[in-house]
Design goal:
This protein starts with a strand and ends with a helix. It contains four helices and five strands; from the N terminus they run E-E-E-H-E-H-E-H-H. Strands 1, 2, 3, 4 and 5 form a five-stranded mixed sheet that branches. Strand 2 and strand 3 form a beta hairpin. The protein has one domain.
Length: 90
């Protein structure tokens, strides 16, 4: 079980954001986010949006920094990926 973190590259609200995902199930993802003090409202269907200033702490807590392509591959392989069409249906 691994929680992955891609490089921050999405500007918003005066900072740059990246994504935190699990390769197995949401329980470990929510647990790491909770340990880091990231609110559940930051969870967006299949990932957490996290600001760049939280990255060092997340890596210390066990998140593995990978490039964006590897993060998406891991999320798809896990079966946890929520597509845009599925998001619209929610």
């Amino acid at each position: 079980m691994t929680v992955y973190l891609d490089p921050p590259m999405w500007p918003r609200h005066g900072t740059v954001w990246g994504h935190l995902v699990s390769d197995v199930h949401y329980d470990e993802l929510h647990a790491l986010a909770e340990r880091a003090g990231i609110p559940r409202r930051a969870f967006d269907h299949d990932h957490y949006d996290v600001p760049a200033e939280r990255y060092d702490e997340l890596v210390e807590l066990g998140a593995v920094l990978v490039d964006g392509r590897e993060l998406v591959r891991a999320l798809r392989a896990s079966g946890l990926r929520v597509t845009h069409a599925e998001r619209r249906a929610l």
